[in-house]
Amino acid sequence: MEEKSLNFLEEIIEADLKSGKHKTVHTRFPPEPNGYLHIGHAKSICLNFGLAIKYGGKCNLRFDDTNPTKEEVEYVESIREDVKWLGFQWDGEYFASDYFQQLYDWAIQLIKDEKAYVCDLTQEQISIYRGTPQTPGTESPYRDRSVEENLDLFERMKNGEFPDGTRVLRAKIDMASPNMQFRDPVLYRILHSEHHRTGNAWCIYPMYDYAHGQSDSIEKITHSICTLEFDVHRPLYDWLIEALNIFPSHQYEFARLNINYTIMSKRKLLQLVENNHVWGWDDPRMPTISGLRRRGYTPASLRLFAEKIGVSKRDNVIDVSLLEWCVREDLNQTAQRVMTVLNPLKVVITNYPETSTSLSHQSGSLSGVETTEPYTEYLDAINNPENPDAGTRKVPFSRELYIEREDFMEVPEKKFFRLAPGVEVRLRYAYYITCNEVIKDAEGNIVELRCTYDPQTKGGGSPDGRKVKATLHWVSANHAIDAEVRLFDRLFSVANPDDVEEGKTFIDNINPNSLQVLSNCKIEPFIKSTKPLDHFQFERLGYFTTDKDSKEGQLVFNRTVSLKDSK
Fold first, then answer.
1. What is the pLDDT averaged over residues 53-60?
2. Comparing C-alpha atoms, which of 297, 285, 294 is closest to residue 532?
3. Catalytic residues, which ones?
């Protein structure tokens, strides 16, 4: 077997281990709890935890909770659930807020070392003073405050003496640096807002660029893996660690995940939720992990997807069809097969027995007595042809059935080989039937087909060797379970939802046909005891999962993906 080549991160890790730079690998997954995780985060989860597993190291889960105005306990809990559902267990769970005191103490150290100062410029003024990539910035008029004054002001900031936005703590680096991140970046801002963990203990909060590297250092993270947009932040990451003389964590960047027909911005996903364009964060049309889970995606399919797209240093756009292929690959091997009719058309087999016949004692003799029970056969059906160990199930077959309405055509078009007047087809696991009569209502709508069956073709074969050109799925009318089925399409109608005309937004590219609800579906009774997130292949129709909206007697199913890529 050909040995799989290493990605660039694996090459770095193996070189570090070989040289003795690090004795072990320690990574982390550091989401901000300001929304639900999406498929892009799934790639990062698989990468960080996967590297730790491959090299016998550790991976932490750390919540970057430095902005209390956007973070909630709900998001923390959802992140934990998503990571576990993907199949990973973190070695330590931490919060950036665990380190607030240490980060504050280090900020004091930077002030004493004359590497940080309190600045009174507004956010807008700071932006103007910073200059442009083509022109150097202008030093703040507060840059040369004394150490004593900076220490006093910073402590008073912490004590809540100043309103929001009136002062910040900035690093003192180089306002002429070609790297804009080096032009005296903000380390702390005043924010009088209750934190979901620390309450009102703090009214100053560290900026991401300050908290990130120092949190990595505290946890002794050897390989801090971020997406590519943070590459310009890496020099600041290194500068702060060096300035504080702490454990030398190092940052590495990989290309973030971009998928066509998909929005990956948390801010825009939140907009979809808050403006009721979707049901919520777990709407099956959303690219969130919870949405994909509800739609029927499996942990194995997302891990396979992360493996297939690989790790690179260059941004590109992945076709959503690859994600769909991955879930088909997994569900084809694991999903239970059942027969379901989405748009039912009734079929009556006129020469099939109507009721069961039983024998009972009458005056000491045996005589045949017809009961009112419909005559039913129980046929063997294969649960999963890809897995012999999945076994078989019994499927009821009776005189009255449902087939898909689209499987019948009164005046068949050329190359239409399914059921039509005078045409013989095979019913899966059952018999050959022939349509003899079409029953219509007063408006001319077809409401019933009357057919005959050949009892010699049980199991789907003919003793005289004749062949049919179509095999149809069906459900026994007397045993069918009623269900609602939701058919999902892509949430956006264009490959790049952000590609809009002037005056419009990505919202204008929402696909108006992204959801179709079918309320009169019929399913074989095997499915009666299903529970949420059970996976099925509805034969000939696609892969489906049981939705959490299901109740006893009111089952609801979501289509995960069609059997084949129809796009």
1. 98
2. 294
3. 32, 256, 266
